[in-house]
Task: structure prediction
Amino acid sequence: MLLKSLLPAAAAVQMAAAQELMRFGCSQLTIDRIDPLVEPGNMPSAHMHQLIGGNSLNASMAPVDHDPPTASSCTSCTYSEDFSNYWTANLYFRARNGTYKRVPQFANLGLGVEAGMTVYYIRGYQASAKVTAFPPGFRMLVGDPMNRAANTMQKGLCYRCEANMQQNPFGGAPCTGQDTQAFPAGACGGGWRVTVHFPTCWDGVNLDSPDHKSHVAYPASGTFETGGACPATHPVKVPQIMYEIMFDTRAFNNKAEWPADGSQPFVWSMNDTTGYGLHGDYLFGWKGDALQRAMDGKCSGDRCAPLQRQTDQQAIDCVKSQSVQEDIGDDWLTGLPGW
Result:
């Protein structure tokens, strides 16, 4: 994002609106050990996820057979025509005694949802920028849950250690400045902001690919932010999707509770203690041509005339019970779910 680096966070929200960044909140739909993209049908999946969006979410969501806008009766996102599903792994704290507790999420600045994530759809940073909305059935994955090295991470995946809950001073554009590819090393007074960017070029043919990545790509030259052209193999420019997940790590800042050997006390639900396994999944589910209308209408923020919006409370009220009944870690666990 082309945001000036020293603005306070409230000003950053205003700047996002000025730059036509469609930024909205989605409350927590569920926390569950399912993964309809990478492990369709498996219950349980290999690791725990936190998921948002349409409540037709389930372990098996075939691209052609499953239509989220038709199958869903509500969405946890404030734009009520968005029945897409978005998910990432869960973050846990590993105490000195070897037990684990889930790190809770909280709403980003300026948004009235509960937990969940902040979702961005970005048309581009040039006045003339145009993108093509995703077709029904589209889905993709960015990052690799098995990755454990910085040099093999995909672009645009990072962590920010916030000094306070006001995010002041503002740390600049995501994945710049003091942001890191690895977990933050110290205690953070305002928790973590975790950022996930998806590729912005599509091959124009495939709704998915065997690795859930090959049908999308990054610009051939430059970047999405600079208006870089898509490669000939993936000629269709699609909206840039970005997640921001706010994790409230403040309850775990007492270093007397951190492992005695000084090792990193936080761990992703796939047992990653490095942070390099950061990844995000996306399953498109906007109703009709709503997303294209939003992009053509240069929507910004979480209120836009071309789109229907529900109240924050209606989004909060859209929840789904676990498919796999197990303790998610709101109380101390002796091990990570599935490990």
Remarks:
- Residues 9-18 form the longest helix (10 residues).
